[in-house]
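@channel sequence for tomorrow's demo:
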Amino acid sequence: MQCVPGYPSGLSRLAVASFAALLLPVPAQAAEPVDVELVLAVDVSLSMSPMELDIQRRGYMAALTDAKVVQAIQDGVHGKIALTYFEWAGDGMQRVVVPWTVVANQADAEAVAAKLQAGVPNSARRTSISAALSFAGDLLAESGYSGMKRVIDISGDGPNNQGLPVDGVRDLIVSQGITINGLPLMTAGGAMSSYDFADLDTYYTRCVIGGPGSFVVPVHDWSQFPEAIRRKLVLELAGPLTPIPARYDGAEPSVLLAQAGNAYDCQVGEKMWGNRSWMWDSR
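structure tokens (generated this afternoon):
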């Protein structure tokens, strides 16, 4: 067959069509629906002893595999959540230990626990809650899931002392519809107890947490830690408008809602760090 001048042959037409197909936009893959996208952000700053770091890891392992937590997951609309777990310290130290993983049953929870058991936490200098929150926000933005709730669950044993002001970062994240809950560790057992912050629970309620239904669960003794994590997870997995159950009022460890009102100095950690002449240059 004679080709018409200026018109491509069959093989050429195929090549043109293939090239044109490459230029077409690729449809975005729909995000997998889940009840909650949950980021577990865990403090590993040098103020925490190796024993405390181990208690933290084991506490999360026990809570995630607890029957009540698994049941709370299965009671959701989709019956599954997506979670990721990372450890943080200063503004340049964030390490993902468990990448985004779907948990829908006991076996899934056990698999997450196995990942937490596989390694040893690595401590690092300083405490940048603001950098940890920013990192958590980035993880949520790139999760690949579509949660009815998006929650950052952050634990820490001291105020922000490095990086951007924590309340500004908090406000930015909350404006994206993300809830931040806190687990202030007020155990006074670290290697640098002289840096302990007496009203860390108030600091967290005023400066760190925010969003719909946000709350903190202060831990005053490491023996409370596993129950604090379990309770916190059950509450976070509940529906977005579910109130704090009455049975938790006055219970230990307590559940405190976000506070507003009187002015609070959210730069107190940075100021303490600036006046640290009496402490080692390591936290």
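heads up for whoever presents: The chain has a mean pLDDT of 82.
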